[in-house]
Design goal:
By secondary structure, the chain is α+β, with helices and mostly antiparallel strands. The protein contains 15 helices and 16 strands. Helices cover about 35% and strands about 20% of the residues. A hairpin with a 7-residue loop joins strand 9 and strand 10 (about 280-285). It binds one RNA strand through strand 6, strand 10, strand 11, helix 11 and helix 13.
RNA sequence: GCGGGUGUAGCUCAGUUGGUUAGAGCGCCAGUUUGUGGCACUGGAGGUCGCCGGUUCGAAACCGGUCACUCGCCCCA
């Protein structure tokens, strides 16, 4: 074990990386606030059952990817692998089920023990929204539209395609699941090893298998939409109509499913081909069954999560913050005065740099690099006359300014 | 968890069939210029050649293991 490198699947966010993260988070927060989603946060770890119960033992996320541990008091805890279950737990814990709907935005780190790849970290970061209370398909439409607007604001919507599907309600999904299993069982021996395992654990997952033979078998498999009952069909129709009216493009993708057990009705993913195998940039769906799985009341809800690292890979780097001013003393005797002046200017709201070393040429070069448009120079003669030089780096012009007039000159 | 690829300076990369003190460009620091920037020139710092072991008179190079990244599977945001 070498401590001079970050643990596998984690990474440092140096300023240029952090700037991208901040850009994603602040944009998502602003856009989702426009839809009424309020920023909130839940703890980084929860009782293990918060994730284990709703996510199900068939989910890899819980069965083999969690960071779970026993604390010093013997309590079983888990670093959150996703945030939806935790937000729902918070809604129930705080008695917020009495005041619905609740609309939340969150951003923060999640943890999954996976094999790292580009866009797939062990500590990764997500932004997301949860709309808890309404069962109306218009709530689904609002969540999807909010996601699309965030991607658009970040400039990545054009690189993504919205895939949409309905998993139906419990009745529809169970009918389909039975039909699918019955169909696939005929070809059991021809299925890939992964899909044979999925047949018993999570048969819907076989629909998006990448194995060539699997795909041929799936081509003639029953279609989920044929098994939607009337209510599920109506839910989907209202949603698609609302999206079309709101100008949200999508493709119906009957093979789109979700890995987590609590999803029903709407499933959607914004997918890009710019990130290799990690193409899903923002995904979510309806999870009416989650609250009950946690031991709460029946509580319809819909939401999405998006990977900040993946979005960061797609956006242009935000412009770095530049300094407004640099204060330079031309005489070593005046260094403390320069520092005092810089402090005063900072308190007045300016972003000010004070160089610590170098001759005048180096200092001006540094001012250039920091993007400071103006430099204040303290020369001995001027200083004794209560004057300062204010030099514009763009024009090279230098103005002589009385010390007392500096702030008004600058503004 | 499975299969493939890659690890040399902060970054991008050279490094001959294994041979003396491992190089370049960019970046960084300093000087030319202790009172006026972007250019240029000169100099400097910075490397356990990912790590450990093996082969060899001799390893950055060959072999084994390991760690990390990366591509695909898997999973998913």
């Amino acid at each position: 074990m070498r401590i001079l490198q970050p643990a596998r699947g984690t990474s440092d966010l140096l300023p240029s990386d952090k700037a991208r993260h901040n850009q994603v988070v602040s944009t998502a927060q602003t856009i989702s606030a426009r839809c009424g989603f309020q920023d909130m946060a839940t703890p980084i770890f929860e009782f293990t059952d918060v994730f284990r119960r709703p996510l199900g033992d068939t989910s890899d996320v819980v069965s083999k990817e969690t960071y779970s541990f026993e604390d010093r008091g013997g309590t079983e805890l888990t670093l959150r692998p996703e945030n939806t279950a935790a937000v729902m737990r918070a809604v129930i814990s705080n008695g917020l089920t009495q005041t619905l709907p609740q609309k939340y935005f969150y951003a923060g780190p999640m943890f999954r023990y996976e094999r790292p790849q580009k866009g797939r970290m062990r500590q990764f970061h997500q932004i997301g929204v949860e709309l808890i209370g309404p069962s109306s398909p218009l709530a689904d439409a609002e969540v999807i539209t909010c996601g699309a607007d965030i991607l658009d604001e970040l400039g990545v919507l054009s690189k993504c395609t919205l895939h949409l599907n309905s998993l139906g309600d419990t009745e529809s999904r169970q009918a389909y699941r039975a039909a699918l299993i019955s169909y696939l069982t005929q070809y059991q021996d021809s299925l890939s090893e992964d899909s044979q395992r999925r047949l018993s654990q999570n048969p819907l997952r076989i629909l998006d298998s990448k194995d060539e033979t699997d795909r041929q078998i799936i081509a003639d498999a029953p279609i989920l939409s044929d098994y939607l009952n009337e209510a599920s069909r109506a839910h989907y129709d209202v949603l698609t109509n609302a999206l079309s009216k709101a100008g949200i493009d999508f493709v119906a993708d009957p093979r789109l499913v979700r890995g987590l057990d609590y999803y029903c009705h709407t499933a959607f993913e914004f997918i890009t081909d710019a990130l290799g195998a990690q193409g899903t940039v923002l995904g979510g769906g309806r999870y009416d069954g989650l609250a009950e799985m946690l031991g709460g009341p029946a509580l319809p809800a819909v939401g999405f999560a998006a990977g900040i690292e993946r979005l960061s890979l797609l956006i242009d780097e935000p412009a770095a913050a530049s300094a407004d001013l640099m204060v330079i003393s031309l005489d070593k005797e005046l260094e403390a005065e320069a520092f005092a002046l810089a402090s005063q200017l900072r308190r007045a709201g300016y972003s000010v740099d004070v160089p610590f070393s170098g001759n005048l040429g180096k200092k001006l070069k540094r001012a250039d690099k920091l993007g400071a448009p103006r430099v204040i120079l303290l020369g001995t003669d001027e200083w004794h006359n209560n004057q300062l030089q204010v030099k514009s780096l763009a024009t090279g012009d230098t103005a002589l300014v009385a010390r007392d007039d500096l702030l008004s000159f600058l503004s």
